[in-house]
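Table S5 (text form). Sequence records supplied for joint modeling of the three-component complex.
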Amino acid sequence: MKTFRRRQVLRTTALAAIMLAAGIANPASAQDRKSVKIGYAISKTGPNAGGAGITTLPNYQLWIKDVNDAGGLELPDGSKLPIEVVEYDDRSSSEEVVRAVERLATQDEVDFMLVPWGTGFNLAVAPLFDRYGYPQLAVSAVTDKAPQFVQRWKKSFWMLGGGHDYAKALAAILAEAGKTGAINNRVAMVSVADGFGIDLVTAARPAFEETGIEVVYDKTYPVGTSDFSPMINEAKASGADTFVAFSYPPDTFALTQQAQVASFNPKVLYLGVGTGFPAYGKNNGENATGIMSLGGIDPNNQANTDYRKRHEAVTGTAPDYWGSVITYASLQMLQEAIKRKGLDREAVSAELASGTFQTVVGETRFEDNQLRTLWWTGQWQNGTFVGVAPGDRAGVSKVVLPRPEWKQN
Amino acid sequence: MLVTALLSGLVLGGTYALVAMGLTLQYGIARIMNLAYGEVVIAAAFLAYTLFTAWGISPVAGLLIAAPAGFALGYVIYGVMMRPLVARAWDKASLEIDSILATFGLLFVIQGVLLVVFGANFTSYSYLNVAVNVLGTTLAANRLLAFVLAAVFAGGLYLLLTRTLWGTALRAVSVAPGSAPLVGIDVDRAARMAFALGGALAAAGGVVISMYQTFTATSGVVFTMKALIVVIMGGVGNILGALSAGLILGVVETFVATYLDPGLTLAATYAIFLVVLLWRPSGLFGRIAR
Amino acid sequence: MNRDIVFATAGFVAVVAALASVPVFAGPYGVTLMIGLLGYVTLASAWSLFSGPTRYVSLATVAFFGLGAYTVAVFGESLSYPLLLVVAGLIGLGLAVVVGLATLRLAGVYFVIFTFGLAELVRQLVTWYEVNMTGTLGRYIFLPVTPEGIYWQLLALAALTFVIAWAIGRSRIGLALKVIGDDEVVASHCGIDIARVKLALFAVSSVIITLVGAIQAPRWTYVEPSIAFNPTISFLTLIMALLGGANRLYGPMLGAVPLFLLFEWLSANFPNHYSIILGLLFIAIVFVLPRGVLAFVEEHWTRLRGNDTRAGKGAAE
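The corresponding structure-token record, covering 1016 residues in total, follows.
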């Protein structure tokens, strides 16, 4: 009995090995180029699919359509090659995203790779982008360590700033408003116990302290919390005029609803990811007015307005007000760099690092491989989420405080 | 403060109990460990969302559409997928493994369909998001509705199961599926009804939850797990057990958030669950012999 | 019988040696693929070590897996690599003993959900600790471990798991386990110390799982609780083992290999309908292969051979 079982297993193993080897040894060959291969792995299923599905994936689709409709990616000699897409689902797993990127680089031998969604996943694939020499335009990654990462991975570009940037901008706004007497200097603050929330809250604490803002309530809640009434009650009782939540989309929506129910009317309401989602504006209508968050846009930038219209027309949903437009801009930079330097990844990376580009957010260029012209704080005003900080950037809107009280409907 | 925390906790627990009751029927009586349960909840949430945003049908009216739809879905799923598995199972353990595997597949199918139809976006709308004052505590009307529904369903099902002949037959099937036919009970029919009823409850829960919780096509598994914990903690197949376990978890969560640290709420629910299981290995209301 | 063992050993060594040479001829993607594959083969085999014979379906896999990954992330800078693995193993062992002692009273589905709750509890506690004690959530792993190195380590671990499983199957413990799986009451009447046997097995299985997490973690560069304690890992391990047949030596492998390749193929070729196709295939598998791949293969093999006496034994086990 033992013998035959072993033999059959051996045979199966051998068969599998042969199949594997055959699959592995299949070289991709295309001397006469008919297309440019662009590959990406993204979370289409699993817990990250929600975030990837609003900020990243629609912009990839829109850009690919835009480029191919225009005849393809332009090369330095003026010829155009259509984009051929290789797409994998990373199933929201680090192990999968690493394998998918390895596959894109070595198996599909794509010309360029687009990044996955999320800080963790961008870091997970960074060593691979680096090893295989692909430029990495990391958008949906908020990290204060970008300067170190740039040292470690020369071709990595970080495009959404770090927690300190956002926290300092918020602290400045609050300090300013405090001076005019519009609000008191007390802040109640909650944060989600995940990368984003903790990064921001650890940056916010010293930033608030520096500007003389007193944090009277400071708690962290786990991912997946659905009932915020205890926290809202505490914040309400704390007497703080400012309520800050470094939250994830489901929490942002829930906090808004539950604050209305509790008639919790802080003069400054600052919420996290999700505030800039089109659904947020639609759901809350008038009540969104005055609510602040990360990101924003310049409402008078025509290129951005056109982009938003096209995004909605092509993908069926409006883009969010934070990462979406940066994602699209990152793709435009890649496109332009290819136009200037061709398909040589080394040259394209160098061009990305040093060149200046016209994108949907205006003139864009990297400083030490980081995008620094960003809207650190935004606010809902007249149905649009506009950028209100940094105050010296062109196209800035004036912050309006205090926000109006909830209208009960 | 104490009253506020208690009431908020009960209302939160109402949501947990509401979602868990269908599962306790499906697992306790139909003996199907349904891992796709949360997907049915989410599907109903999407249904309510579509009815509300596209046709302006209020989610309360949506309940009257979703619950029968859930019943029909459960009925069909049991008939097509589960019955052959029950028929071929030679003992309880093998049915458990088969149903875990099969409903795991079903989970992916429903989730995949939802992803194709609705995309991966966060979905949310708000309905009945108004304040209701109960004993000096402000509660959201939509959450209160979930609590009331949970209590009504639990009470109704309890009476149904204990006071009617039909309910007695269902309980007989849950206790001794092997012997039930000897006293003239059609086990297959009873299990099918229980499974379908569970589907209706899942759908009702999904509709109510969609009024105040943001959901995505992939968030079903969260509900399955929460429901499983409530079911197991309350004792499999026990409606009142599910209700009390749900409420206990809600109250614990709110108290920990209010008096200890919101960061420990989920840790506390799992800790309570583990402690209850260690203290009573078959759940609060479970039968001892298992 | 002795010749059988010699052949088996020789065959086993040859297979391991052949697999060890994979990085020499397969490209980087091949190595990556094999890492994922071996990872799941090891997880499923380790899982079956305990869950196969005792029929205790555990969803705590990721608790140990994540703990291993976290240990590497936390001590990666301060400990030398071999020591790191030892520490990870010891931590896994510690948790396994505590959990094992606590769960001996539970049975059936209560155990299933208990272990799931345990995994979530560990995740919540790690999160809470990181947030409140260290103030950062993400941790970076910059260890100079190459993919080939990870692959060889996993291969060694997988081989070790196989040897352990094989040795247990032949030992007195293995016999005791079979009795426990069939009927605990009988087992205790036979004078088997059920608790000790179960605990020992749970500990061995958990330590291996912890090591898989520890070995794989350097590939991710960045670890946070949602990444390390991803519950999908528990589910996939369980499904692979059950599909293959958890109470045979080769069963978990025969479940893990085809399923893993299937996942890979589906996610590459049908990124948009992956879930639907996977789900349908799953349901189909349950109906077509009611008792796992191994049982199916055995039945058909023997039918082809017309070897009835052996078939009876092989299939009725």
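Note: Chain A is about 45% helix and 15% strand.
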